[in-house]
Amino acid sequence: MIYEHLFLGNINVDDQEKLSKSGLYDLYKFCDNAIHDIKIKCNNRYFGPLGSEFVEKDDEACKFWEKAYKILENSNICNNINNIHPKKCCEYFNYWLYGMFKDRDIYDNIYKAWDSFFYKLPRKKTCYIKNKYITFNKGQFEMKKRLFDFLELYYLLKDKLSDDNNKKECCDYINDMFKLYKEMENTSNKQIYKDEIFHFRSKFHGNYSELNFLNNKCPNKCLHLVFNSYNKTLCPFENEKSGIYGEMNEKIEEGNYYDICSNFLSNNNEHCDNYMLCIMIARNLINLSKLNKNERIKKCHYFIHWLYDKVGKIYGNSMNTIQDKITVNKIFNVSYMILQKLGINDCYFDVISLDLVQNKERKYLHDYFENYKNIESKTCDNNNNCQQYCERIMKINELYKKYIEKCCTYYSKDDYSDDCKYYFKCNQNYNPYNLYKKLKCYEVIPSDNEKMEEVKITLVKDYVQQLINDYRNKLKLMINGNTSGSLCEGFICDTFYMPVLLLFGLLGILLISFIVYKVNIN
Fold first, then answer.
1. Which residues contact 206 (CB under 8 A, 6 or more apart)?
2. What is the rounded distance in angstroms from the CA atom of residue 332 to the CA atom of residue 347?
3. Distance (Å, rounded) from C-alpha 55 to C-alpha 58?
């Protein structure tokens, strides 16, 4: 039976022969037995100068440290366990501690005691503290250990995939671990999980045979898409299950719109995504054609972002480029064919340059503006809830700053032109800084993070004045001999094009003179 500190979900790996080959299992077993064999008492002699502090303030930490101290004091612990390399053994010990910390708030004091113990015996080989300068909470300790245990004992799970009795449980567990990796990869502070992310990528990134094996054994779980950086979740259709996107993502009978999308069917099931996306496009565009013009225009903006998003998630790769351009072009051609037949002129979209990163950014902005009122009405139920909202606002603010000059021309605060109407709103009421202040994000975001700066508009007159001032400053510098630059910029100052222009001009004059001369002679 797996010991309680070994995280393998609900999978029963009761194979002692295979487990005995695992150094991780052996060390967890040794440490579990060791802490149960030691009498529970608090003796400050194990803390040295720190003893009185822990005995008085944290009795549980004091009792636990005595147990951990006895384990660390045994310098031969790693040599006696399956010949594990000392470095690997200490790594296992750290993760065993993570499992102990997941139910306790004692890790800070334990690490202080461990640090003191480590430097007290500099010549004695003992285990080091991983990431001792990074602060974790109990939930993060548990996440780190769950993924680490999965990666170390993955070889046991592969055998279980061949057993029909355990296959479903095993696939569900592997799917949970792949989702956990995606969560770590996309968290705002991924540095906390850098070791586990590196370990996961070392095992699976570029290992196409292994990913294909998992995808075949556990179909419909999108395991092969785990390194698609376009997707924030593992499966493309997991998010946006409600609202307008939810309607567009609703399941549809495969037989519908067969006459439109039959070219996407193949003799096997390898390319079902192509056909399913096609019939969803057909269904959604037909639904749009039934709306009045104003409502259709609004939902067409949603459709454009929905389509780009699906194309990126299904056909994009880890480099944010399209890996199957032929199929994507066929998808777009079918979409335009449907638009033309329905006579919908509001939903045309650009297919010339498909920039997945840019399209994703525009979708974020569009969804932010469309949901601004809803976000504005939110209240912070707790600090975690507030921090989640504030992190999203700060991310949007970066995109807002990036696109505002491209999309908006301001003559005054209330007089402006919108040049990106399908994804950006220039009205300053939608400035993310308004939400930042309302939710008091400056109090919620950790102090070590930078404060969010307000994105301010630049009026046309101010921009022109800035150009004039730059010109004057450059002129002054040239007059004073403080710059090697030149006021002459552009085509007429180019050292190549200007002489060429003069040469062709001279040839033109000579040609005209020759023609006039011939005419006069005749």
1. none
2. 12
3. 6
Please report the DSSP string for 402-422 in residue order. Answer: HHHHHHEEEEETTEEEES-TT
Q: Is the dihedral of CA 352, 354, 358, 363 positive or negative?
A: positive
The domain limits of the chain are 16-225, 243-354, 370-456, 489-522
Q: Which amino acid is at 437?
A: K
Is the model's pLDDT at 16 over the cut of 60?
no
The residue length of the chain stands at: 522
Q: Angle, to 10 degrees, between the axis of helix 23-37 and the axis of helix 86-101?
A: 60
Of residues 206 and 46, the one with the higher pLDDT is 206
Query: Does residue 407 register a pLDDT over 90?
Result: yes
- In this prediction, residues 263-278 reach a mean pLDDT of 73
First vs last C-alpha separation in the chain: 113
pLDDT at 474 over 80: no
Closest CA to 273 of 331, 360, 343: 331
Structure tokens that stand for 450 in this block:
């930078």
Tens-place pLDDT, residues 55-91 = 455 566 666 666 677 677 665 566 666 667 777 777 8
CA distance 336 to 57: 71
Mean pLDDT of 205-216: 86
- Scanning the structure block, which residue is given the tokens 């054609």? 289
In whole numbers, what is the pLDDT of the chain averaged over residues? 75
Q: How far apart are CA 360 and CA 307, in angstroms?
A: 11
Distance CA 299, CA 252 (A): 19
